[in-house]
Amino acid sequence: MANTEVILLDFWPSMYGMRVRVALADKGVKFEYKEENMAEKSSVLLEMNPVYKKIPVLIHNGKPICESLNVVRYIDEVWKDNVMLLPTDPYEKYQALFWADYVEKASTSIVFPFISDRVKQPLTEMQGKVAYNTPLWWDLPPNPAHSGSSSAPDCTFYFKQVFDSGRKLWMGKGEEKHTRKENYIESLRMLEGILGDKLYFGGENFGYLDISLIGICSWYYTYEKFGEFNTEIETPKIIAWMKRCMKRESVSKYVVEPLKVYDFALQIRKHYGIE
């Protein structure tokens, strides 16, 4: 596969795009990066993803692969010479795929998975996001019998909680912001409990579930600034996981620097009159 053409259509602050960038880098796949202007989408993007019209899109030898988790799975299946991102055990692989897919469905925006209802409509219109439906049972807590284990359903339940509470946090104000901060921190603590003493969410090796959450390495500083708290004090194991991930060349090269994301968030708030 070394001589094939690989192009990635992406938008730099996208947590979904970061998944694909990291997966490609982790596999050692060389690719051409093409930045998209999501306010004026390119003809290439519209041609390659005519249904959803959103990024990221991987173009492999002229054929598009859409939706970030689908793309990561495709990368894992096509480029098998390097370490596999998904578990080799069939049932563990099924769990990782199934539940990580619900992380995707629970997200509320292609680029801004942490926006509030106040600005959801204009932002999603700008990004061309198609509405989604979340199953009612998604919000049920995980089975207590799984507490402290590496159960994929447990992990992704708390991924979703972090996404939701973080989304509400950086657009909040006053007492509302305080409540959202507490919810976000509690979600991180739950996630920290799932991580336990493991190096990564999938166990001893960096993999698919870690990639599903990798964008938080870019966005956590934004949540800290708007929520006025310190992640390392509140959840030291989560920060240790982030630092561990950032030591990987595939992550440090393609996960956006947190200060840059924070500046981007400030611009979004200003644009929509939320200051």
Furnish the topology, listing elements before pairings.
Blueprint: E1 6-10, H1 15-27, E2 32-35, H2 43-48, E3 57-60, E4 63-66, H3 68-78, H4 90-106, H5 117-127, H6 152-169, H7 174-195, H8 208-213, H9 216-227, H10 231-234, H11 236-246, H12 249-254, H13 258-271
Parallel strand pairs: 1-2
Antiparallel strand pairs: 1-3, 3-4
Helix pairs in contact: 1-3, 4-6, 6-7, 9-13
Query: What's the N-to-C terminus distance?
Result: 49 Å
**Total beta strands:** 4
The profile of the biggest β sheet is: 4 strands, mixed
User: Looking across the biggest beta sheet, what order are the strands in?
Assistant: 2-1-3-4
Output the CATH topology of the largest domain.
Glutathione S-transferase Yfyf (Class Pi), Chain A, domain 2
Beta-strand share of residues? 5-15%
Secondary-structure arrangement, i.e. CATH architecture of the largest domain: Up-down Bundle
* Helical percentage: 40-55%
Number of helices: 13
Rounded mean pLDDT score:
77
Based on secondary structure, the structural category is alpha+beta
| SSE string | EHEHEEHHHHHHHHHHH
What is the radius of gyration?
Answer: 18 Å
> What count of structural domains?
2
Q: What is the overall silhouette?
A: globular
Low-confidence stretches: 106-154
Catalytic activity: RX + glutathione = an S-substituted glutathione + a halide anion + H(+)
Enzyme class: transferase
Protein name: glutathione transferase
Domain GST C-terminal: 89-272
